[in-house]
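Journal club prep — side note

Before the paper discussion, L.F. wants everyone to see what a predicted structure for a comparable chain looks like in token form. Sequence:
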Amino acid sequence: MIRENVLPADAGAARELTPLRARLTGPGITGWAKESLPLTDAACRALDRIAGGRAVEELVVVVAATAVVLAAAEAQEQVSVNVLDPQGPFACTVDTAVARSPRDLVLAIDKELRAARPADPAPAEAAFAVSVGTERRPAKDVAGTALQLTLTGAPGGPRALVAGFSTSLLEQWWAEVVLRSVVTVLEGFNEPGRSLTDVELMAPQDRAAVLDQGRGHFQDSREAETLLSPFLRQAAENPDAVAVVDGDHEVSYGVLARRMDLVAGRLRERGVARGDRVATVLGKSADAVAVILGILRAGAAYVPLPADLPKDRIAFILADAECVLAVAESPDALAGTGVPAVPPAELTAPGTVPAPVDEPAADDLAYVIYTSGSTGRPKGVLIRHAAIGSYLAWKRRYHDLGPGTRLLQVPSFAFDSSVSDLFSVLGSGGRLILLSEADRLQTQRVRALVERTGATHITLVPSLYAVLIDALAAPGCLRLVTVAGEATPAELVERHHRLLPGTRLVNEYGPTENSVGATAFDYDHRPQHGFPIGRPIDNTAVYVLDEKGRMLPPGFPGEIQLAGPGLAAGYLNRPELTAEVFVTAAQEPGGRRYRTGDRGWWTPNGLEFLGRGDSQVKIHGNRVEIGDVEAGLCALPGVHSAVVLPVTRPDGALTLVAFLTGSVDAAAARAAARSVLPSSMVPGRVEVLDSLPLTRNGKVDRAALADRAAEELSAPARRQPAPAAQEPAAVREPGEARGAAPEGLRDTVSLVFAEILALPEVGPDDDFFDLGGHSLMAVMLLTELESRTGVPADLDAFFAEPTVAGVCRAMGSVA
């Protein structure tokens, strides 16, 4: 495994996984080490049987076994091996997909080597990463080799395989894994006619290691709890304890439980029955918490929706989920959907508490979260009480939650991370401190709220933590920060330990289909091996498998698959998709595994995330299917075709770039997209082309479009002089009447706008959001402006007038 193989934070699409093909630029080879492994009797018999019986050299058999291992290590069927010979190295390209058996593979390699000629000396930057030779035929040294395997010993006697490797490029543990794997494959060659895909790849000790690493502590789940059970216990035992902090108001456990029962009774009066689904379109409030609890208390499941979701998408979800009722702060916004809507205040208003209702069962549906679908059709993930209850029990233990916990609740109630916040805290007797949507990007307000409430815990996506970290660090009361939903960049980990040295930092990984979380890792220091996403939580098994469903050794990339009671019941009304990704696995608890589509590999520190194996990406913690975005854009008037690509901006953030054809304007298309797509799915940049570039096969040349988008995003911002007609006035003295922007301010604001948006220039009246900006970028913009000018900028004022001219007016008034 390449040393310090750290994943970039954006990692949307799967990166090129070639851990062996180390490009010998940068530090180069600065050290060399060797490891030796005696061949087992079975491996020696295979060598003697194949080499002796078919008049091929032992070297050819070792090359074949090495090619099988390399194909798995590089996640590709065709690999290159440098075969060492006294005359010089031979470049051998092996296609493992063509050979059906070890015998076929050996004969194909032997034929190629007999016809080969010594390769020309390769330049260091293109050198073969792996070489294979034998002790009995000393070979010329090959510059640039990262890993060299040498067979020692004579035919018929004891033999060994020696791995020499570059210590500046490869880590010892990984070289040892490769060595053991080659010997294991040689053992499998004892049956030369068997299928090549049936040859075992993993040595017994590596199989034991990944099985141990990949299995959390499993507990008896026969007495699985519902989401409500722990909260009801806390309400009965500590009714006067504070449960929710909503602005200046505090709501006790007893009062919250009473409101929950009011909501449940009134829902029953409106015909909501056990097993029904109720939609919620709610902001942050204590009443919203009571509504969610009340829906569950009535035996129904809730379907949370963001308030800013386009109306057509809301209507689709309400119909697909067959919601019998919606609870919305603005019921009129749901008019025409065919689903009756009621405001939360109507359900929580004081009154007589109806007769108690039965608590839901562990096997009942708790909630349905809709995620982006590759065909443009959102898919509803079905989560039962027992599944999420298993995760929450682990969360309360691992995060040491209790009556002293004060959690600053950041995520919207429309996302499953809010389920973790709400029910882990309310089930442990702690306080849930609600941070409103309007305040979550206001750094000074966040700092003031943390100071006032003494918040001890917080969960948020890494991109938001990077914006808020200074405000969160200042009060000094946080004990634990959990980051989830995106890959965590190395610089954020280092920044956390610099600003909050006594605060625990935990990374959680897990798809919605596994009830919020699957693995966790404590970043108590900079890890020695990359930046892993950790080890499985309780009642969870994690596997890394190749495309044939075989478990892979440590350091070999494959698909992450999950098993355990935390798995979702499936997708609502999507039996084919459910069967495709929730596969039968009789040996697993529950008899299923979930294919995440995420790529990863095992390291000594646990599981490391390597990106996606499909077109799904994460934008600010939101799952986005590229096909969903393309389908939405193609439905716009005047758009003939659309190609959407995830592109990394100069600041490391991931953005979507759309290329359209048709009779449409780019700005108009982006504005129209906001009416049909969720905000996280609206491309940051839209470009209209006369036609899309094609490959020689007639397919869209996505690589050419990606290069074009990356080049445009990397163009440096140009400093623009202020127009003479708008020359700013001098800086005001304290108490001086408001005037125009201070001198030089417009130039600075224009430059920062361009830098943040990754544009060459920005006009004075260009709308920040029309140019691809979003709320997190807005905070970055204002923070950078205050750093350069010393003048504070107000986020509310920016949202009211998000232009260079507007910011200059707002900053000029306080300068």
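L.F.'s comment for the group: The longest strand covers residues 592-603. Keep this in mind when we get to the figures.
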